[in-house]
Please model this.
Amino acid sequence: MPAIADDLVQPFEIEPFHLRGRLVRLGPLLDEIVTRHDYPSAVAVMLGEAIALAVALSATLKYDGVFTLQTKGDGAIRLLVVDVTSAGAVRGYAQFDADRLAAVMAGSASASGSVPKLLGAGYLAFTVDQGEDTERYQGIVALEGGTLAECIHHYFRQSEQIAAGIKVAVHRNAAGVWRGGCLLVQRLPLEEGPGDARDALEDGWRRALILMGSSTSQELTDRDLSPAALLYRLFHEDGVRVFRTHGVRAECRCSRERIERVLRSFPTDERQDLGQDDGSVTVTCEFCNQSYRFEAPDLAAIAAG
Ligand SMILES: [Zn+2]
Model:
C-alpha cells in the first residue's frame, strides 16, 4: 500500500503499556480552509490548531454524524468552529475583530499567540450530533490553558478521567503553504493487577509522554516523513503498532438547496430586508466563503413555497 503522507489519521497502539493514540497529519486540507478566508497568521494558526485537534478527537470516537469543536471567548478571536463528519469531511471558520487582533499582536515577534491573549475568557465545547432522535453528546471546559491543547488536556482530566497527552503543530512552510499535525496519546483504563505490573505501566506512560514531547513541530508536519515512520522513530522500543489510516478532506456541506430552505423559513418581510436594491439576496457560507445569489424571481419562487 503506498504511503499517503497527507490529510490522514494514523491510529496506533503501544500495547505493552496499554496506550493508544492518533497521529493526524494535515496538508492541503488545512491550507485550503485557511487560505480561502485569507485569515491573518495569528487567526490561521489558532484555527489550524482547532482543526488538527478536532480531527484527532473525532478519531477517538465511534459516531455516525457530525463532531463539532467550538470555542467562544471575549478576546479578539470571538469564535472558532470546526466540524468533522464521520465520513471525513472537515470544515471550519473563525470570527475575529481585526482591530483588537492587530492591537494584541502589535510588537509580538511570533505570528502565533496564546489562548488567554487571543481567545480571552470563555469556553471550549464539543458535540456529537448523530441526527434527530439520537443522543447529543456534549463536553465543555473553560478556556483555561495557554494553548488549545492544554484546554483539552484539562477537559480530559476533569470529565473523563482519561489521562491524555496532546501535541499540536501548525505553521506555514517556506513555500507559503499551511501544514499541521497532532499527536494524541491516551491511557486505557488500568486493570487491577500486581503492583509490579502497575508500576511498569506507569513508567511506560511517563516514557510515552516524554517521547511525545520530544517530537518536533517539523516532524509532526513533515510531508516527507510518513506518520508510521514518525511513530516508529518515537516509540519503536516500546512496541508501537500502527493500524489502517483513514483520510480526511476539506469539504463543506452547504448547498443552494440548504440556503433556500433557510430563506424559506424566514418571514416574508425579513427576507425582503435581506435584499439589495435590485431585490436580490446574496448569502455567503461562513465555513467555505461560497456565495449564493438569489435574484428577485428566485425569491418570489421561494416565497411561493
Ligand atoms: Zn459552505
Q: What stands out?
A: The mean pLDDT is 90.
